[in-house]
Specification:
By secondary structure, the protein is an all-alpha fold. The chain contains 15 helices and no strands.
Amino acid sequence: MIESKIDESKKKWRVVFLLLTLILLLSTILSLSLGSVKIPFSFVLHHIFGSTDNEVWSNIIQNFRIPKTLTSVLAGSALAISGLQMQTLFRNPLAGPFILGISSGAGLGVALVIFLGFWLGGFIEMTGLGRSWLLVSAAGLGSFIVLSVVLIASFRIRSGVSLLIIGLMFGSAVGALVSILQYFSQAENIQAYVIWSFGSLGSLSWNELQVMAPVIILSLLFSFLLSKPLNALLLGEYYAESLGVNLKRARMLIIINTSLLAGTVTAFCGPIAFIGLAVPHIARMIFNTGNHLFLTPLVILIGSTLLIIFDLLAQLPGMEETLPINAVTSLFGAPFVIWLILRKSNLNYSF
């Protein structure tokens, strides 16, 4: 009886995984075809698998839409996985990189780079660091510091609500520091930071993707290795210790991995809401499991697919302007999650 249920669960997982993969491929083709300049599907396929004779369309696909689509896949996967890890670590369904201050800490690091950039110019030339590496380092360090403080607070406070309030307070404090930097900054730097805070998936070039992609891909691969410790943490700290899990080591690895994922995405794309908080719940609703060996690949597929779809919705038909991705994810995503929750009578995900 038990074996038949396990076999049925594996079969369902394979079907869901295959369906999500097909949806991701279809969304990717749509992302390469649709935009201010509509490019036929046939031309997109010819560009990918063969040669083309339209240099203008080929240039749009190669230098603009493929980097944008890859950015959507990387950012969606990274934010979704970081949200999943935070919800499991804190055993709280409301936890996420944005709520607990990871993105706020990353934003402070980016704000320091933008507003104090004229002081850092000599440092960049002296060390040979590029601006992209500096943004990644600053965002990763900022998110790591904020999350570490929240984690230390979690050792003393057992209430999940209190921990969420502490995370929000850290976010408010970081926001205050950014406001002070803005007050004493020049107008062009303020404008640059405000535009960055809107979120963007289309501003990355191939050179920047060469920095962003390796960090996220390595962190995503490492997330699979964290599946067993995360499963043990679902059952409680004492039970995890009885299974031989080193809690301090596991926490630190999860913190480092999450800060790299969320910090890197925030540095390059700005603070993107909804994905990190909601995608893990969507994955659990679809498959009704808390097993991270199943959830990790599903969350990666759902997160990347949704962000591509949201990016398509952000494209205003017949116009060159694009809506801020941060606004689109919340505007369309929040009602969708509310609808799913209203349809689901039991939201017990083994927290």
